[in-house]
Amino acid sequence: MMNGITANAREYWGEVHLLPTGVWLLLITYSLVAFGSPMPPKITWLEIVMGCGLLLAGIALAGSVIREARQQRSAEWCLGLSALLCFLPLCVGLLRGNELTDMARDIFPLMFLLAVPILLINSASAANCATLRTLIAAALMFVGIYSAVTFFVGAHQLFGSANQMVATMRGGFAQVVADRVVSHAGRILLEFNNPGRLLSLKLYDPATLFASIFLSGWGVILMARSWPGWLPGMVLAGMGALIGYEFMILGLRAYAAFFVLAILTICLTQIRERGFFIRLLPILFVTCVLLWPQIEAVLQLL
Fold first, then answer.
1. Is 130 helix (H, G, I), strand (E, B) or coil?
2. What whole-number distance in Å separates Cα of residue 302 and Cα of residue 297?
3. How far apart are CA 214 and CA 138, in angstroms?
4. Which residue spans traverse the membrane (predicted)?
């Protein structure tokens, strides 16, 4: 397995020069979000650097997008619909007299969400597609894992342990009253400038969801397919499950449900493998038995 990974890495490295400079700038700039917040309370030098990097990357890749739009009708439709998705709500906001700062707060993230996939897709070619796909996954994994680790370390410093955080969160949700006054746990995570709230936002980055599914999914596949992949697969699955556990202790039900459904889907694709019943299911059963108190507490929280 290691030989195969090394061979693939060498192959991708040999194709790195085929990627446009704008792609490198875009991915590196996006990776900086790991050191900030997906929803920063104020603009700092990090957000300024990211904004400038994304702008320069967009300018560098705009030519390829325009060429694709001229050659392919699907790319033209994509650009047109994306422009409408930005322009129509903006017009509605202006007609309703919304504050320009409020509209800017929404329109710029929307442009980022729309522009980045368009720029990357139209930068792909038959020669660099595999390398580009690998680098995108690597950037997402870096942001997702770094954000998850940052949350885990910060939560341990604030609460002492994951179990204590679950207990505190349960107490906070249970004591919500009609005037929306919450307990100490709620205030820790809801106050705007509180470190607890800023820490909890790290898990809202979609890269953390991608990382959890990617790690656990490959862990399931490796455990089901061969004995040599059993131990690496167990490590990967455990890492992904730990990130999924963080979603659950924070009460992110949509993230937690999507993670579980994705892993169940991957399990269904491996159900015909002999190792699914010999290696995967026994490990899953033993893990559930050993961690049942934590699992029960999280289910009650959700």
1. helix
2. 9
3. 11
4. 12-33, 45-65, 77-95, 107-127, 134-159, 203-223, 230-248, 254-271, 276-295
pLDDT > 70? residue 3: no
How big, in percent rounded to 5, are the helix, strand and coil portions of the chain? Answer: 80, 0, 20
With contact defined as beta carbons under 8 Å apart, do 63 and 99 qualify?
no
Q: For residues 75-95, give the mean pLDDT.
A: 88
- What count of other Cβ atoms lies within 10 Å of the Cβ of residue 301? 18
d(CA 86, CA 95): 15
> Which residues, at least 6 apart from 166, have a Cβ–Cβ distance to it below 8 Å?
249, 294, 297, 298, 301
Q: Which of 272, 282, 270 is nearest to 234 (CA)?
A: 282
pLDDT tens for 117-146 read 888 888 887 778 888 888 899 999 999 999
- 16 Cβ contact partners less than 8 Å away, ≥ 6 residues apart: 131
Taking residues 155-182, report their average pLDDT. Answer: 60
Largest CA distance in the chain: 64
Residues 181-237 pLDDT 10s: 444 444 445 444 455 566 778 888 889 999 999 999 999 999 998 888 889 999 999
Name the phi and psi angles at 22, rounded to 5: -65, -30
Separation CA 93–CA 301 (nearest Å):
38
* Tens digit of each residue's pLDDT (9 = 90 or more) over 44-64: 899 899 989 989 999 998 888
E-only strand ranges, the chain: none
Q: Count CB neighbours of 32 within 10 A.
A: 15
List the chain domain ranges: 1-271
For the chain, the C-alpha Rg in angstroms (whole number) is 22
Residue 76 in this model has a pLDDT that exceeds 90? no
The torsion angle over the Cα atoms of residues 15, 24, 35 and 49, rounded to 10 degrees, is: 170
Looking at residue 279, what DSSP letter applies? Answer: I
CA distance 89 to 32: 29
